[in-house]
Design goal:
Four copies of one chain form a homotetramer.
Chain A: E1 31-39, E2 42-50, E3 59-69, H1 77-83, E4 85-86, E5 90-94, H2 98-112, E6 126-130, H3 145-153, E7 171-172, E8 175-176, E9 179-188, E10 191-202, H4 216-223, E11 235-242, H5 248-256, H6 258-264, E12 274-287, E13 295-299, H7 305-326, E14 330-331, E15 337-338, H8 341-347
Parallel strand pairs in A: 5-6, 11-12
Antiparallel strand pairs in A: 1-2, 2-5, 3-4, 3-12, 7-8, 9-10, 10-11, 14-15
């Protein structure tokens, strides 16, 4: 099934070209998998991002995190900040299931790395979360360890968007949200580079929604007869992948710019919205065990970062819009429901372009 | 002389009401003064923001700074972060004149506080800067100490905008920029509060400029036959004043949201653009000398911050646009010049609303 | 059973007086509970610190964390930094069991707060860890949810130290380490205040150990015929409780000074040692739901912090030494063992004072 | 004149070997110069650290700063954190003269780099300070621009310590302090590396002073019949140079460990003491203008950092003691005076070893 994405509605975000699939998986080696639980009160799931095809513990990637708004429980950022590396896949799920996700990811890593806890130290799992309590009975903690493993096993280059994986029960601008992705390509000194973004969107209030500068949220809100309490208790997780050769400081500068894209969709980064960015670069593999020779880390000149800044801003904006426009209507916990943006566009005969 | 501001062009930013003068000086006690040097190669100046009418050293204000992009030389933020207070006026000027500004502000503070350096410790001046090297001969360091004192003496409630004070030689989206201001009012539990923003704008490239979602920069760029190298080596200083009772942590959360407004004018926060926010709250005075009784700091409930977040986003966006639309054409260093946005609107007969 | 602590060996750390029990529980309302698993390959456990006697979710405490060295997986610090509060007990356990501890603490909080995930958002559990892989089969993840609940239920004012709770399998300066505690009292304006520290020690190499300036580690190392590979892969968790009225900024300044005490026991804060401090003040309760009136937060004058800085430095130093001197010999995983410091003192007839 | 340093008193700090001169200038390319003003009320000066022999603006060094306690006004750290480089010499002087030092250093840089402010942007001077108000009339701002230039011109490999340069009027543990330096050497994979530290000491109270674990401050305080108000309003600037190939993240980890050395001399890092560390590595030159090929940055394996951590701790401890033991008695402002530690050792016939 081909999903209709924001570009299919005629909306083109920014100036830069997208990658082949306009997806985080345009960065070579990156794959994404989902497990979706969708039945009655249970509207939740798991999304796994695998950063490269090798053993991430043995060959770590330069990585960085950035907290836009820290009302969130993302795990693993303390060590990522200190050591500057990613050494596991990234798991996204609902807020109250991150303990389970941690346990499952630990088991997955221990199985693949018998040295951990024996001849070498520990491993630092990265788990991100948003709170899907409106549509999902989050207190029930539906996620089990095997779901996490299945999401990892499902990982591939094709990324389904919308109400899937960790996005099953999430909202975006008071409508149904969830998973979205996008990418940008650009060349520096005749070398092509890619930045890909995947979001788990769960933030915003309808009247703030903007698409390419148009205040579509206000229009929709007036068109809809009913309305919801517009209290943003959401969150967004933003995963940024790139093949640019950068230091962790440079990578941090890049991922901070995701806030630009977020802002342009209408967000004011509300108090209750945990917004965390995790970024990694596949350009250099940092060996776990000390190699014979000193590692050299190729890094672009600081002035070349501007293209990357633009890329991450544009791709974040488009990934959010993709999460919104691909999501389907969900009937969830205790009869709570949220409409799909795409259904509203039809219902009210709104053209985006 | 009444300046024509962005609202006078029919552009209304955001949902919240402005304060009486739509200015940072809507926050009671705050005043602003300029000294402008504009002749030939010398296109620079000083802008002073006085945070309250008393002795700021003896009665400090809760304050916080936030670095959006640290390609800048703002002075005083280390101590502000550690101690959480502002104890001097804030001076804005060009990059290479902050030493002079420091010296002048020190002299000003020493004169008013004979205890400093004798019976009590030192004082922490806050100096912000942008680089006006295109229109101004920044190497000549035209600013002298007396200019800083004059800017402080000139301070009043009326804020002139555009090519004045520290903004004399600054650019904004490749056009003439400089000083802009705006404010927002909102009520919490029937008490009215104000957030005011003043910007010194010196960033951005024309083709990125957006006004209320409209890609006016692209339009203008196509209309203009000539173009400039669009390399952003700019900066923006953002000063946020409020009378909200907040802790320095809460204030920091507020001022971080200025990036939302910035993003919506079209910025991607480029590498070369030093973007620093300084915020203070007039709600509580922190005594320099230890008082007899423990100080109690009234602080709003965290959930009430959302209105403040929206306010600072909107006011920052509008302050940037005000700096752009009020600025006048300047012929500066070595024949360099930049047109005024308002002149281009006329020339190409563009309506903003 | 009365344990022999460092003062019982004639060693007096610092200038300030201790609290009544020289324990973190000298801070009113604070209690501590352990569950210890000690059999063969299983040498691990859980330690719970309950910050006050009420409902911590409904009445939060001002809190702050500080990362001395981020080679660690402590959970919950992102939100603590953003919101400045502690809203759950603090759980300490081994590195690979923090997922289980998270799950158990979530269940404990959900049970006591039916609003969570229904009419209000989520809860932010604080879980700290050290890696006990030498003596404990950490890969086996022995900790089960009920252990965490039991540790919470065991909480009381009497704190057992040494090879107990989360400290069961931990090392300190290559010897057996684990749980230690200490406190300091001081008066400001005739009001008495207490700072208490609890550590989970698991760091350091023997030859670096210093007690009150004496290089006892070097002496011991020479006396011992056998030696261990002195590679520090440890960690330390430091919990700081106080009844001082402070802002979260001030609290952060206080807890940073724990590094002074740590340094004086001989640590160089090695690469592999995750060292994280969590602090809270019981002076102010921050209500979860918005109260009718604005909250006022009493805060001491900045100059009075110096006593608190000294107190936390001294108490941290003494807590580490208490963890070392109370710990008992443990035979653990695969025949690995570490001697008790107190046994070595006897064996080599060393007087500490 | 050969100064008697702490090792000449028989005190050996730590386990590692010192460099050839036990000085920051043991790091190849680093030189240090002083200008000392010492007459009556004027007891102040300037110390310049030149990081390498080339043009620091054109060939920048990887650099990092760390704020131990931010009651200080150090300039330039915002940009250093963002860009990770040092591009000027480092100037140390008294608190109220950093404006002058900025101006002088700017002039020095402009003269050597005609591109600045013309074809390239600005330059980011690094100025550190301590407050010498007890012995020096700091309000008089005695430092003039030419003093800064002279300190730069005086720079050489031989570092005079004690009451010289910026240290002329500084105190250490209530006695005369000032400039001190020390270094450590160690090998990784048969390659020798050096870490050098220079301090400007101006902190601490006598009764806290410890030398190699001995509470010499307490002894001295009892021996001295008179005493001073022991209020620490001081500061310390710590400059760390190394030739280790490190990323700025790794360098930051290294320089943070200077607090270990500081703690062992007796400091509790008091409220009023601004304590800032600036570090740089000479291993890689980062070109100002974009080079033809991507820059590769050699970086040691994370596990090899432990030696560097120990080195910076030991060298900082020894540099502080050197600043104390080399300083001479000064009669300063308004008859204020502080004795020299070395004179007290003689007077009370105290042997340090």
């Amino acid at each position: 099934m081909q999903q209709k994405r924001i570009r299919d509605f005629g909306v083109k975000i920014g100036k830069l070209d997208t990658g082949m699939n306009n997806s985080i998986t345009d960065v070579e080696g990156v794959s994404v998998g989902h497990v979706t639980l969708s039945e009655g009160n249970c509207q939740t799931g798991v999304t796994a991002i695998i950063p490269h095809e090798g053993n991430t513990f043995m060959e770590k990637l330069i990585a960085s995190s950035y907290v836009i708004n820290g009302f969130g429980k993302t795990m693993g950022t303390i060590q990522m900040k200190e050591l500057g590396v990613l050494e596991t896949p990234i798991i996204l799920t609902n807020t109250l299931s991150i303990g389970t996700a941690f346990d499952a990811l630990i088991a997955y890593m221990l199985e693949r790395n018998p040295e951990i806890g024996r001849t070498t130290g520990t491993v630092n799992p990265i788990i991100g979360e948003c709170n899907d309590m409106l549509l999902n009975d989050v207190r029930a903690q539906f996620i089990e360890k095997h779901h996490v493993v299945e999401a990892l096993q499902n990982a591939g280059k094709q990324v389904i968007e919308g109400s899937v994986g960790a996005g099953a029960g999430m909202l975006c601008y008071s409508l149904k949200g969830g998973i979205g992705t996008s990418s940008r390509c650009f060349s520096i000194d005749e070398q092509m580079y890619t930045i890909g973004v995947l979001v788990l969107s769960n933030f915003g209030i309808l009247s703030d929604l903007q698409i390419n500068g148009r205040a579509i949220g206000k229009e929709l809100k007036e068109a809809l007869l009913k309305s919801w309490e517009e209290k943003d208790k959401g969150s967004i997780m933003i995963i940024v992948a790139t093949d640019l050769p950068v230091s962790e400081r440079q990578l941090n500068r890049i991922i901070k710019r995701s806030v630009v894209g977020l802002s342009r969709t209408g967000s004011f980064i509300t108090h209750g919205s945990g917004e965390v960015v995790i970024g990694f670069s596949t350009a250099t593999k940092i060996p776990h065990f000390k190699p014979k020779h000193i590692t050299s880390i190729p890094t672009i000149h600081e002035e070349d970062l501007d293209l990357a800044f633009r890329a991450v801003g544009e791709a974040t904006e488009e990934a959010v819009l993709n999460s919104l426009v691909t999501a389907s209507h969900v009937n969830g916990r205790d009869g709570n429901e949220r409409p799909a943006f795409k259904d509203l566009l039809k219902e009210f005969n709104i053209q985006l372009a």
